[in-house]
Amino acid sequence: MENALLIGLSRQVALARELDVIANNMANVGTNGFKARSARFNEFIMPVAKADAFKPTDRPLSYVIDNGTPIDLSQGAVEMTGNPLDVALKGDNYLVVQTPSGERYTRAGSLTIDRQGRLVTQTGLPVMGDSGPITFGSSEFAMRIAADGTVSSDQGTRGKLRQVRFADPTKLVSEGTNLFSATAAAQPAGPEARLEPGAVERSNVKAVVELTRLMEVQRNYQSVANMITKSDELRTRAISRLADQQA
Length: 247
Known about the structure:
By secondary structure, the protein is an alpha+beta fold. It has helices spanning 2-27, 207-246, and strands at residues 41-46, 61-66, 78-80, 87-90, 94-99, 102-106, 112-113, 119-120, 128-129, 132-133, 144-145, 150-153, 156-160, 163-165, 173-174, 180-181, 187-188, 194-197, 199-201. The protein has two domains: 2-69 and 205-246, no CATH class; 78-201, no CATH class. It is 27% helix and 26% strand. The strands form eight sheets. The chain has a four-stranded antiparallel sheet with strand order 6-5-14-17, with no helix packed on it. Helix 1 packs antiparallel against helix 2 (207-246). The longest helix has 40 residues, at 207-246.
């Protein structure tokens, strides 16, 4: 009976973890460039050591262990905004932004200009060009971004957006606020990297799928909770009967 309780607890912990992942996806349905994650779990068989000298032999017990939350890097829907500073990234390229912790990477292409004249993300982080941050003078207007990433104004070219890609983007680490860090060095995206000016890439979260999964997780959690409750009641009755027999 203790084994049943422990197995049920391992399943509840896994379901709670999956619920957190689903909740985060749902919270970012409207976040530009957001990439959904999913929960993955493995079966863990116990005991590892077997006492085969005894009859009957030990029975294998199946537990649930966390196997990470892989990211879905599929392209989100492209939505036209008409904003000349909005860009939707096409392919597996990322924009580079400067943060207090160093360079980070994002797919959120809704850009703006801050009070210092810097091209920044919606959270105020400078967007890096090939030669550093891109800035504009106070008298400049008609700022725009071309399909190849060239940033210009009425007074000419001001730089080119630095775009990078990774050999294995699935190993990118989410840091919140739609930013990623990487353990491996970023590689230049190359001249083939293209943008869709005046548009943004929407989140690739499928709300209907996430909502369906949410209901399934809730049902499974309740089912496991009922199993644990019944197992505990069975143990209580067994102890009570044993006490009566000894009396």
